[in-house]
Amino acid sequence: xxxxxxxxxxxxxxxxxxxxxxxxxxxxxxxxxxxxxxxxxxxxxxxxxxxxxxxxxxxxxxxxxxxxxxxxxxxxxxxxxxxxxxxxxxxxxxxxxxxxxxxxxxxxxxxxxxxxxxxxxxxxxxxxxxxxxxxxxxxxxxxxxxxxxxxxxxxxxxxxxxxxxxxxxxxxxxxxxxxxxxxxxxxxxxxxxxxxxxxxxxxxxxxxxxxxxxxxxxxxxxxxxxxxxxxxxxxxxxxxxxxxxxxxxxxxxxxxxxxxxxxxxxxxxxxxxxxxxxxxxxxxxxxxxxxxxxxxxxxxxxxxxxxxxxxxxxxxxxxxxxxxxxxxxxxxxxxxxxxxxxxxxxxxxxxxxxxxxxxxxxxxxxxxxxxxxxxxxxxxxxxxxxxxxxxxxxxxxxxxxxxxxx
Length: 406
Fold this sequence. Notes:
Layout: H1 2-14, H2 22-27, H3 49-55, H4 69-73, E1 79-80, E2 85-98, E3 103-120, E4 123-129, H5 132-135, E5 147-153, E6 161-167, H6 199-203, E7 217-224, E8 230-237, E9 246-248, E10 254-256, E11 264-271, E12 280-290, E13 293-304, E14 308-319, E15 323-334, E16 340-353, E17 360-371, E18 377-388, E19 395-405
Antiparallel strand pairs: 1-2, 2-3, 2-19, 3-4, 4-5, 5-6, 6-7, 7-8, 8-11, 9-10, 11-12, 12-13, 13-14, 14-15, 15-16, 16-17, 17-18, 18-19
């Protein structure tokens, strides 16, 4: 049982890739929308002017005090030609304990250059490629995608923007940690290989994500953000990268989550009204549906700028006559200083396969701290505890990550 937990834990750790940090949106005063700090309306990728200014001078050590002022002066912005070209990157190196015989080891999880081209005020292009996808080719996961690219067309500020390309549909909140249980199908099919025709697939059901890591699909989306406290999105997408995800029907057959060649619809609403002076807040809901499979989410964020943030998300999904998932996350981040941010996260995942009578419950607790010794460098030590209620004992692990961003 301990070996099983260690393997499952390592699988989760390996999926730790970057998107965005929603806690920053309610710890700072630039606004709660993802687009307040990112060019991408859903967060992640290139940081816009506000996003760049928010973190570029944050550090425990003053670069000038160790003779590095000139070096960091060269990195004074991330755009040229009056923001017609914007660029950036995220690089993540992770140390964690892997299943035997590897033991404690490290890997490059992400090396993603970003680029935005804005040739006209109403026309823009953005994209990235994760080079680590090729570096760690033996650690890829079902539905994972190494790149995304899209075109934005926005004729006027008061009109919706059209986004077309290969990108992630708006499903829940985007996190920089893909091990969060809200985005996983937790648990396993206890009847295992007894399912007719399931074979090894049933045994591997714990590895099936609810939303693939670095998920992206070919699609088109309308985004409306003309109101300062409101963001609305609606899009239609291909399902190619979700077609490999499988589940077990109530008759014991291995079935795909979505049909080949099917189309998905995704909706998102985000509101951040100013209800109390000095308090940031948002409420967001998403709904993703493809045939008889859907994922819905509701998330809440409350924060005192430069002090503390609280995030919570509830995500529910169902595949008809197959499975139901009910996942929850809550996280508190305390800003000790601009460059030292400890946090704690509690998560609970529940999966109910309709072929079985009892649901499967999993819990995860994460204790960590973001440390910024110098600008653009984030050191992230964490202690993680994971347990499955149907399996005695628990798995615990220290991990360490170095995140370089620009």
